Amino acid sequence: MDYKVDKKSxxxxxxxxxxxxxxxxxxxxxxRAYTNAAxxxxxxxxxxxxxxxxxxxQQVKGIGQAIALKLKTLVETGSLPYYEELKASVPSGLLDxxxx
Length: 100
Prior knowledge:
With 100 residues, the protein is mainly α. Helices cover 66% and strands 0% of the residues.
């Protein structure tokens, strides 16, 4: 069953992953990849969910295989365990504080 995850939510999750990776001191290239993917999706005119379901999401410049697989999981299940694990690894509320 596919869940309706809108473009705005997908972009927000990608941006949040980038921030969480930075907070954890991960490789800056990894964080930048998520930021670039979010930016690429902001510019995309096609329906993102359709691109993900069809597997054509990797044709969008800035979306690699690893991020494409995560997006597929997000659209198919309505959640992304990778994102949930990252959120759980930083103090509660820290991400919210950074958006202020």
